[in-house]
Amino acid sequence: MNRKTLVLPAVISLLTPVLAACGSSDGGSGGDAIVVGTTDRFTASSNTPAPLDPAYAYDVGTWNVLRQTVQTLMTQPRGDGAPEPEAAESCRFTDTGNERYACTLREGLKFASGDPITAEDVKFSIDRARAIKADSGVFALLSTIQLVETKGDREVIFHLNGPDATFPFKLSTPVAGIVNSDDYDKKKLRDGFEVDGSGPYTLKAEVKGNEVVETVFTKNPHYKGLLKPKNDEVVLRSFDDAEAMGAALEKGDIDLMTRAMSPEQIDKLADSSSDDIDLIDAPGLEIRYLAFNTNAPLVKTKAVRQAMAQLVDRAALVSEVYGTQAEPLYSMVPASITGHSNAFFNKYGEPSKARAKSILTAAGVTTPVKLTLNYTTDHYGAATKPEFEQLQKQLNESGLFEVDIKGAPWDKFQTAEREGEYAVFGYGWFPDYPDAETYLSPFLDKDNFLRLPYANNEIRGTLLPEARREADRLTASDSINDIQDIVAEDVPLLPLWQGNQYVAVRDDITGGEYVLNSASSLQLWELGRGIGG
User: Fold this and answer.
1) 142 in helix, strand or coil?
2) Taking a C-beta distance cutoff of 8 angstroms, is the pair 289, 493 a contact?
3) Rounded to an integer, what distance in angstroms lies between the CA atom of residue 231 and that of residue 250?
4) Residues sharing a CB contact under 8 Å with residue 294, sequence separation 6 or more, in sequence order
5) How high is the pLDDT of residue 470?
6) What are 101's strand-pairing partners?
7) What are the angstrom distances between the C-alpha of 302 and each of 132, 308, 449, 463?
8) What stretch of H or E contains 52?
9) Is there a contact between 509 and 529 (Cβ–Cβ < 8 Å)?
10) In this predicted structure, what is the pLDDT of residue 13?
């Protein structure tokens, strides 16, 4: 089979790929463990002692571990339509106002330990995450729950504090994962890297120092749910950088690699004539943005943030750093999500030094404005530093800003951001679920995960509740568009780009086209070992 790039359709659902990897699409159980490479790092520290606790974890890497091991009532297998029952046999709203949601558990559910799962375990798990209120902010996904009620061993009823048509999606996220009260304390997080659940795999982590170097996922014999694992064991191996990961793939030490490959590496793989490795190019919903601590003196004045929005040249940024692997983004809600608008382009148009200067002059801001843009050095891939160098260049060349850039490792970066040390900082966002609300509430609502001080009463009191209320997400677009317009005016966040996602896989591995959905959720159960073409 000749080396090729497999391109999946640029639509939200990934149910039907244009081309599949060689071998049977169903793969099969058994055979050697499939080894997957990643640059995600899993580190425990005094600031983040419980990185894999479902009540704490809130980044794409840790969620991708939990999705294999901790079962949720609902799930999103393969595509990105409505979530389907997983640990539940059925779930539905039982009222016309989307305020009461009832689930019935599958019969015979067990944790990997063999202990039976009851409705009380679901209640314990949900109430635990809500009560702990970890500083990651993940508990906010459950903020519309007023009360969790159980009836018998199999029925769980969620009473909501307001209409929330997106609630089934939230029950598919790892914070709603079902855990055993024998393993998890009700009042505190579980330190370290042990994870116990009822998902398709059990987990064993190889730890050196305070960092996981390899995670072994073994098929859970007690698993009972919607998913059908096509392998018996998968090893997730962490690498220091994309180059080391790529070298391991070339040598055959790993079978597949995903995030985060460098742009240069992706281009090289796309142009390669290797017979053994396929590059799968799929649409993605990852975005990158700048966030502002609007209480910080340097950016407290709205005009400073608006001037930056007026100056940033997204097209040049993407072209210089990411090429065809990303697209300029003019709203926090990416293209292909219902409710997307080009709010920032509508307000600011093309980049303009003259208009930026006028904004600053009208507000009486002295130039050049001195700022530091902060970024993480080891979480979003090797292109992050070049990206911030390009932003620095654009702002400084205007003469209106004097910008420095400063990088920090992920664990230190997160801590500093949460403690308000940064005025401006860069983040990536992978959606909790494929809906516009998950690009807005986590940043703009009360208890937002970045702890941003920005608060808009219309957004929090009227528009977000309106957006959640509508079961028809197209109908919700009016409120969602209004939110995007307010964000473009006030600029607490500055969207930059949205990117594609890539998987490089050896020819004898099947299911590579399904291993990531558009939200970058890792679906290791889709992988099998077939026959190379």
Assistant:
1) helix
2) yes
3) 22
4) 300, 305, 452, 453, 454, 492
5) 83
6) 93, 158
7) 35, 10, 22, 22
8) none
9) yes
10) 38
- 8 Å CB contact between 236 and 65: yes
**Rounded Cα distance, 294 and 302, in Å:** 8
From residue 194, alpha-carbon distances to 56, 208, 277, 453 in Å are 13, 14, 33, 34
| 3-state secondary structure (DSSP) of residue 104 | strand
| Distances 292 to 147, 300, 314 between C-alpha atoms, Å | 34, 9, 18
Angle at the Cα of 314 from the Cα atoms of 310 and 318, rounded to 5 degrees: 165
Distance CA 71, CA 140 (A): 19
Write down the pLDDT at residue 80.
Answer: 61
| Sign of CA pseudo-dihedral 430, 336, 383, 34 | positive
For residue 246, the one-letter residue type is G
**Cβ pair 9, 18 in contact under 8 A:** yes
Q: Is 69 in contact with 59 (CB distance < 8 Å)?
A: no
> Mean pLDDT in runs of 10 for the chain (533 residues)?
42 35 40 91 89 95 96 84 93 93 98 98 98 94 97 98 94 97 96 96 94 96 96 96 93 92 88 83 89 97 98 97 94 93 97 98 98 94 94 98 96 91 96 92 92 96 92 87 98 96 93 85 93 47
The sign of the dihedral angle between the CA atoms of 324, 328, 332, 334 is: negative
Q: What does the block give as tokens for 29?
A: 């159980």
- Choose among 497, 501, 503: nearest CA to 524: 503
> d(Cα 523, Cα 234) in Å, to the nearest integer?
11
* Residue located via tokens 């490089």: 504
* Residue 370 β-bridge partners: 402
Please answer whether residues 249 and 277 qualify as being in contact, where contact means their C-beta atoms are separated by less than 8 angstroms: yes
Among candidate residues 173, 174, 207, the one with its CA nearest the CA of residue 193: 207
Residue owning tokens 């970058």: 520
In which element (H, E) is residue 36 found? Answer: strand 34-38
Handedness of CA 29, 18, 264, 277 (dihedral sign): positive
Sequential DSSP letters for 211-271: EEEEEEEEE-TT--SS---S-SEEEEEE-SSHHHHHHHHHHTS-SEE-S---HHHHHHHHH
* Cβ contact 435:76 at 8 Å: no
